Amino acid sequence: MTAATGLSGETERSTTAHVVWASALGTAIEWYDFLIYGTAAALVFNKLFFPSFDPFVGTLAAFSTYAVGFVARPIGGAIIGHYGDRFGRKTMLVATMIAMGLGTFLIGCLPTYGQIGVWAPILLVILRFVQGIGLGGEWSGAVVMVAEHAGVRRGFYGSLVQIGFPVGVAASTGIFGLMTRLPEADFLSWGWRVPFWISIVLVGIGFIVRLRLAETPLFKEVVERREVLAQPVWEVLRSDWRSFLLAIGITVSEVGLAYLLTVFVVVYATAKLGVPRQVILNAVVYAAIVEFATLPLAGWLSDLFGRKALYLAGGVFTVALAFPLFWFLDTREPVLITLAVVVTMTLTHALLFGPKAAFMPELFRTKVRYSGASLGANVAAALSGGFSPLIATALLAWAGTSWPVSLYIIALSVITIVATLMAPETARDGLKS
Fold first, then answer.
1. What CA–CA distance (Å, rounded) separates 8 from 1?
2. Best exposed site among 168, 238, 248, 401 by fewest CB in 10 Å?
3. In 3D, which of 103, 114, 124, 126 has the Cα closest to residue 48?
4. Which of 126, 376, 67, 128 has its CA nearest to residue 251?
């Protein structure tokens, strides 16, 4: 890369460091925006936007609006990926931040069902859709930007971008934890809105940082060779369909786990087991904090041993822990609950999510990399991420116990294991041109 771009080694390292920092900061803000909705759906939306339902049915309705964001993600991935492969990675990263920030802030301003009736959940769904469009192009743009700057250490540098997810989890869950300390009436009146309002300040900071990003050398080379495609999304589906399907399979377990461990366990512990909200919220925050170390470790190990080795290890651990996770939650003991969430997040999600930032871009050529990574990751997110809390809640209602949810987790993991075995090892090779 240095020879191609004419940069000195020191300048290139400085550029890479700035790209990683700007991408990680922006991704953390975007994940915060997206995840506070999930926590709010688990704690308050059933009361404020669906109050005419039975509480459990209201929770299902709230999770249905949560899933809307994931349905929007492939659409956002296709649209933003298209323009990211045509006009550059930087422009789209700035655009996604604006879309997410405005959508999140406006959710915090919404009147409730008691104030405007059915228009309240309708507007909630529309703004959730806007959030999904923004995130659909955000993560893939950030990891493509880093992968195209990072050289041979793509696994490690990419995993630093992934820290944005636990930062978002810790920040969104932590701020809601603080707000739940308010009297119940104050929390339901204005306290739940504060996390959404904070977003506008964070987005302003991220916007300024991202404006200073440099476009990637690999995309510049595509422009200089006049090889920019008119329809990169169609090219992915026509010529890179095998990589596209592998990207979906590789991702379904990780993204499903992410939202089961950060959203569904909150509902399971509070509504099913009667555990105090603060106990389970603290457990999720502690698990996210541990991922600050385990995600870069997993990315670094994937540079040494390959992406597939880490993915297979994460898949096997997921199968092994699918039942013990709920056994520990069922004890209702705060220490054991925290231990279960932390260990499960570390040995399953971290091993899969850390190398993912390198694995996804590595599957696709430069001309379609943004579109391919966006479509693969976001179609998987729509299939397993957005619907996982809804499916798990429905399974729990049907069986009255957690064993079907454990089997669901195992089924997702088997898909990822099979896809990983079929995928090429990409850690040793340069990015596809």
1. 10
2. 238
3. 114
4. 376
